[in-house]
Design brief:
Structural class: mainly alpha
Shape: elongated
CATH class of the largest domain: Mainly Alpha
Distance between the termini: 78 Å
Helix content: 55-70%
Low-confidence stretches: 1-5
CATH architecture of the largest domain: Up-down Bundle
Largest sheet: none
Number of strands: 0
Length: 290
């Protein structure tokens, strides 16, 4: 560990001692790297701008990540800037590289600050990195004017919904918590953890899918079996057995102009025909009751 710290310190010292480049020197090195793939030119160009990487990385030190890791990610952004820089354009390399350095460090922070991925859009990314600063500024104004809606002002400044501001504030207010951790200090060792509080008591997803498939299959079998019935048999069976509230024999007989005993006979015959058709499709229906 001591050796690693020594290497990091020597790296920072070398970056700070690197000479500044004039505009012409910077342009010449960029030309050599872009058009001649001169690696010595790339090295001189990047080492001269490592102090810029360190300065940008220092702005993100409050996110709980090692500064050395931030510097490494910033160096990746610096190399990306060198690969994309067009020296023919009238712009300093440092100006162009700053954006890539900052973007690379920000992506690293978002990937490692929490196990829950955040900042998936440009607006959410801006909210993550600007929330604290904007909240402090607006809260100072709110001290003089209590009518100011702090969350609303932040949402308007960044261009997000107020609920997004409140959700991000809640996320930034505390660290990640493990589901396997005890619910409280008193619960430590007795097996009670947060996972016990979020378990779903309902059926498992595979059970739900299996039941849905079986239901669809049974429905298909029933529709096929019903096709063997005559129109009157099908009508009686639907009204008696396949409706929410089964009709009485008297009511069906009255509508059809037949006796209730005749309705019962037709129903019995229809059930027999239906059972036979279902058994032909699937023999296991032989043990089912109709």
């Amino acid at each position: 560990m001591a050796q690693l710290v020594g290497i990091q310190r020597s790296f920072v010292r070398a970056a700070m001692d690197a000479p500044y480049l004039t505009r012409e020197e910077e342009h010449d090195l960029a030309i050599k790297w872009r058009h001649q793939v001169d690696h010595d030119a790339l090295h001189q160009l990047t080492i001269a701008h490592m102090r810029l990487v360190i300065a940008v990385a220092a702005r993100f030190k409050n996110y709980g990540l090692p500064v050395s890791d931030l510097v490494q990610e910033g160096h990746v952004g610096l190399l990306e800037a060198a690969a994309r820089f067009e020296p023919e354009r009238d712009v300093r390399f440092s100006t162009y590289a700053t954006w890539w350095i900052r973007a690379s460090i920000q992506d690293f922070v978002l990937r490692n600050w929490s196990i829950v991925r955040g900042g998936t859009s440009s607006a959410q990314k801006a909210l993550f990195f600007n929330l604290r600063r904007l909240r402090q500024r607006i809260q100072r104004k709110a001290e003089d004017d209590p009518r100011i809606d702090v969350h609303g002002e932040i949402a308007a400044a960044i261009g997000v919904h107020k609920r997004d501001v409140m959700a991000m504030e809640a996320r930034l207010s505390g660290p990640d918590l493990s589901f396997n951790a005890p619910i409280s200090a008193d619960d430590e060792g007795n097996g009670a953890n947060r996972l016990d509080m979020v378990m779903d008591e309902g059926p498992l997803p595979d059970d739900l899918v299996g039941e849905a498939i079986d239901c669809e299959r049974r429905h298909s079998w029933l529709e096929s079996a019903l096709s063997v019935l005559s129109e009157r048999e099908l009508r009686i069976l639907r009204e008696r057995r396949l409706s929410e509230e089964g009709e009485t024999l008297e009511a069906i007989g009255s509508r059809l102009g037949i006796s209730k005993e005749r309705v019962r006979q037709i129903e019995t015959r229809a059930l027999e025909k239906l059972k036979k058709a279902l058994i032909e499709q699937n023999p296991r229906f032989a043990t089912a009751s109709f």
